[in-house]
Amino acid sequence: MSSNHSHDPAASSTSAQQARSGRRRRTRRTFPVTIVRPATITTPPLTAGQRERRQAAYRLGRELTEAARQARHPLVDETILSTPLNVIPEALDILATAPRIAAAPPPADLRVGRNLRGEPVAVVLHSDRWSLVVRPPVAVAGHRPPESCVFLQGYGKYFGMSYAVFCFDDDPSALGMSWTEMINRVVARTA
User: Fold this and answer.
1) Are 131 and 153 in contact (CB under 8 A)?
2) Chain-wide mean pLDDT for the chain?
3) What is the dihedral of CA 107, 111, 112, 113, to 10 degrees?
4) Which phi-psi region, left, alpha or beta, contains residue 34 (left: φ > 0; alpha: ψ -120 to 50)?
């Protein structure tokens, strides 16, 4: 076997040094970069009425959050109807579904507003037919129990809206006690 290249040990060591130093130079100049792209979330399309209801729930949640951060009482501009739970057919669906949504929310179905100490002060949950806004309890000198409002799709025609807002917090029935337990589970899962 013949070779056109002569084997010169000095040339071999020089090319080996250049190869090593070349490798070193490349590693010194380059920095490992990982390109991260924001996650793309596809949300289900909403009707105009669903968007209107969700935006109203977000406004209430935002007001509860800002009021807590500014140490003031919230200014609520919604007409809130106090009604017994047993007259609203969706109540049982909300009781069953809200804790599941809070535990494993689909994209854009849960928002939590926090005060300046990072404590939750407003929880907003959505489903296809309702939005739930929860104001967690406050355990200070004047203990305040949790409060909630439900924005129900299809009940607002009398008011010229696609939704109506109901409060079930003062319902003394067994269903009302289940409501309070559900609110406490939602708050616990989003804390």
Assistant:
1) no
2) 82
3) 140
4) beta
Sheet holding 163-167, edge to edge: 80-82, 163-167, 147-153, 130-135, 120-126, 110-114
In angstroms, the CA 167 to CA 151 distance is 9
Instruction: Give the model confidence (pLDDT) of 29-40 as tens digits.
Output: 555 656 676 667
Residue matched to tokens 């792209």: 37
Q: pTM for this one? A: 0.75
C-alpha distance from residue 57 to each of 14, 35, 50, 111, 164 (Å): 73, 36, 11, 10, 11
In sequence order, the 6+-apart residues with CB closer than 8 A to the CB of 138 are 144
State both tokens at 26: 């490349």
CB-CB contact of 177 with 159 (8 Å)? no
